[in-house]
Amino acid sequence: MSDDARKTSADYSPEVWKLFDEYVHGLIDRRGFLSAATKFAGALGAVGLLDALNPRFAAAQQVKPDDKRLSAKYVEFDSPKGYGKGRGYLARPAESKVLLPVVLVVHENRGLNPHIEDVARRFALEGYIAFAPDALFPLGGYPGDEDAARALFGKLDQAKTREDFLAACAMLSKVEGGNGRMGAVGFCYGGGMSNWLATQLPQLAAAAPFYGTGAPLEDVPKIKAEMLVVLAASDERINAAWPAYEAALKAANVKYSLYQPEGTQHGFHNDTTPRYAEAAAKEAWKRTLALFERRLRKTG
């Protein structure tokens, strides 16, 4: 199927999306997906269905890696309590006459793939210093294949990975040219990480977790950041926990807002797959930028 002919999220049944969600999050493997998908597409069509649902990084790229307006490179950082060393993708405006706010960008459960690097560059074009760590770096980094990346992700010691992300935040908070104000944004796994980081970093000014697991309820009172919680309309696994998380946010007097657009699937901001919902994704991006503009820019 050509990139131009790809279907949208509305073209697939809820059963297909539920099956794909299980596959994406490691509840079933490729063989399990293909076996279950035969009832929708037949044995031969199941392979084509999975291919249609998988990402197209090049087709969705919005900012080229060599864009002259930006400076982008891979940077290593020390993580003594994590795996020892971490690495991520640092993107910033090529030139700036003022100190810039910083944004940590946290990937989905496949590591630092080309899509998340592109998201980091999008933030850089908006006047931020963006850093996207790769949780898979201790295991060799993002392997260039989504199935292999998903398999590697299951081998991570998440306690050490969380320490790596804390170390990444510490590095970013002191990055040259930064104004000392930090925000975090993450998608799926990264949304959960952004929620958790908000409980660990009182200096975090803003967080925009996209369809991620909420922070432990007992830790919610530690959150000082203003939160923009982005959820999909159809996302049974994540949405089931939202009422309790919202109640905890309210009880702790955490400033937050919710954006949950109709007709969306988990992953709707990711424009490399048919889950992408253009209008909802653009509005979520607009609201994220508004939050960061309000909370991260120093005035006066």
Structural overview:
By secondary structure, this protein is of the alpha/beta class. The protein folds into two domains: 10-54, no CATH class; 58-296, Alpha/Beta hydrolase fold, catalytic domain (Rossmann fold), CATH 3.40.50.1820. The chain has ten helices and eight strands. The chain has an eight-stranded mixed β-sheet, sandwiched between helices. Helix 1 (14-24) packs across helix 2 (30-53). The longest helix is centred in the first third of the chain and has 24 residues, at 30-53. Residues 1-5 have low confidence and may be disordered.
Q: What general form does the structure show?
A: globular
Distance between the termini: 53 Å
- Which CATH first-tier class of the largest domain would you pick? Alpha Beta
For the sheet with most strands, the description reads: 8 strands, mixed
* Strand order, sheet with most strands: 1-2-4-3-5-6-7-8
* Low-pLDDT sequence parts: 1-5
> CATH homologous superfamily of the largest domain?
Alpha/Beta hydrolase fold, catalytic domain
Query: Rg to the nearest angstrom?
Result: 19 Å
How do the SSEs run, as a string of H and E? HHHEEEHEHHEHEEHHEH
Proper CATH architecture of the largest domain: 3-Layer(aba) Sandwich
DSSP, total strands? 8
Q: What is the arithmetic mean of pLDDT? A: 91
Category by helix and strand content? alpha/beta
CATH topology of the largest domain, what is it called? Rossmann fold
Task: Tally the structural domains.
Answer: 2
- Give the strand content: 15-25%
